[in-house]
């Protein structure tokens, strides 16, 4: 026989409690358990609904049960949990009537039945996972997220998780982005140093060319070949001047811009970004810790409530009922605290998310700016280099022209005219 034991203070709530049974919101306890009695003075004034009867316990207290026969010896209480009945009991108004049915829906984690709470937690765990205090969807159970900037490989889409560095330390995605910026600054500095070495080489080369052009070697060469040789030596001096100008332009148009692009304030700006995001992440860690603490507190309260409920099964007393009421209130409060902590955590994570998107896009913009700036400076380098080649070629043109004019016969004529000793040839001696 199923015996539906109903905790009541007034018969006016019996239909409501019976309505719960229609939805099969029940759990089972050993036969013989009774939970609440009804004041005797109300018995006579209200007729029992069909199927309900009153019984008198050995102590003289009246109880009200539904005596529908189902061929079993269990007893079923027609509420989700015993502490759910306590919530309904607290919903009675001052006149003893049941006016509020809001208790039929769970108001907080503390108001949810253990079975439903466990199922809900299991469902959440299956679809979400928290890593280093950041909550992510489980990729296998959640629909694929749409990228914020599809097909752009944007920073704001690929740096949400943490990673391990070669030493095994945890590095956040934002730290990876910051390291990219700092590395870019270092690469820029090293490029400037490279250009400085190139300038030194050009200056040294120009100095040596100029010095070589003044060497008196082969200065006595004559004729058209002598003219070409003299022009070649002069072209060294002209080429030295070209390389000196090239080194000067490298210094002013390439090296200096590389050094001055993003000065000392750049690192300070990066530190501001780092501290800002780190503070938000620390706040998130703190709020996650609060959630876990509240979750543990709720579990402890619910466990305490279950223990007191089991005690009620063994022995019914007013003290036990009062303990259950108190445990129920504490469980509900713990559930409310957990909801508040989760809400604060979600707010903190949303703020961190927004700042991550904004800041990562700013870092992305800075990186694009860096690459484009260096690209322009290196193009300027190649332009200057081509100009140098062009000017060097121009110094060779007179040499080429004179070399084309070299005429051995002409040189011989000129030399003979200048250095001849006589044009009369020797003849045979006469006897």
Automatic annotation (TrEMBL):
Range of residues in the leader sequence: none
Biological processes annotated in GO: clathrin coat assembly; clathrin-dependent endocytosis; neuron projection morphogenesis
Highest taxon of source: Eukaryota
Compositional bias annotation for Polar residues: 104-116
Pfam families (alphabetical): FCH, WW, WW_FCH_linker
Entry keywords, A to Z: Coiled coil
PROSITE patterns: F_BAR, WW_DOMAIN_2
Renumbered residue ranges of the record's region Disordered: 97-122
Membrane-spanning segments: none
Residue ranges constituting the WW domain according to the UniProt record: 46-73
Residues of the F-BAR domain: 151-411
GO CC annotation terms, alphabetical: clathrin-coated pit; clathrin-coated vesicle; plasma membrane
Coiled-coil ranges per UniProt: 295-322
PANTHER family referenced in this protein's UniProt entry, alphabetically: GROWTH ARREST-SPECIFIC PROTEIN 7 (PTHR23065:SF57), PROLINE-SERINE-THREONINE PHOSPHATASE INTERACTING PROTEIN 1 (PTHR23065)
The protein's name in its UniProt record: Growth arrest-specific 7a
Organism of provenance: Cyprinus carpio carpio
Taxonomic path: Eukaryota, Metazoa, Chordata, Craniata, Vertebrata
